[in-house]
Amino acid sequence: xxxxxxxxxxxxxxxxxxxxxxxxxxxxxxxxxxxxxxxxxxxxxxxxxxxxxxxxxxxxxxxxxxxxxxxxxxxxxxxxxxxxxxxxxxxxxxxxxxxxxxxxxxxxxxxxxxxxxxxxxxxxxxxxxxxxxxxxxxxxxxxxxxxxxxxxxxxxxxxxxxxxxxxxxxxxxxxxxxxxxxxxxxxxxxxxxxxxxxxxxxxxxxxxxxxxxxxxxxxxxxxxxxxxxxxxxxxxxxxxxxxxxxxxxxxxxxxxxxxxxxxxxxxxxxxxxxxxxxxxxxxxxxxxxxxxxxxxxxxxxxxxxxxxxxxxxxxxxxxxxxx
Length: 323
Description:
The chain is an alpha/beta fold. Helix content is 36%, strand content 22%.
């Protein structure tokens, strides 16, 4: 059953903006199907007009949905996003969106803020999409689990789940590689904000519910995270602050061979991620169980805890016991 009253005319709000993240610009342009190239050129994120401009115009837009309202932490940002992506309504506080839109997108990537940002909308039953990571603390995950169990429609993903390069990788049965033994994926920036990109890139390769432990023997600037899966696969995720030249490089190693895949098509991944949310609104059918997001957040939290405790191996059962 649809989560919205009119699945052919879904009104969305873009809510929030943090430093280092231009999603309100790019996601609004992708959904609305057009943007002002002059304003977008001055958005502060040169890669956004670059990959938007590389797409044929017909690739922009998501049928049946439009961003009609925007609020940003800095009012000047909201005005600029609205001009850049033809959003007709700018509001002065998030709560002013209630009753005006069918669903909310929170495009910020600071997990510790997401309970505060989402609460006004979740508690009245508005569907909410939350950028990665959903959260980074046990208490916050406990609250999101309670909301999910109460039937509140919440979706949170990294675009890496939808990246065409990794989707193609998952279609291969890898028989010529023998038995999978090791997976690596490199990532830049911080574990707190970008570790979920690496996690969600590799997560669909292995059965959900089978992740055992996390050990982060690195530092805040150079995280080196070792995860273990019950299937006997080791996963190593280096998330290093300035490793921009190796953003999203996944390698699979088997007993008889190996393969590598590199993330390249940002537009495709973002659009596929947003389309999944729009389809969820139209059909009421989740693209994947919330339990998967919860397991991923346990790994994010365990990676922070392990690093803060000198690389101690943290069992996911330990996090479970606190929820």
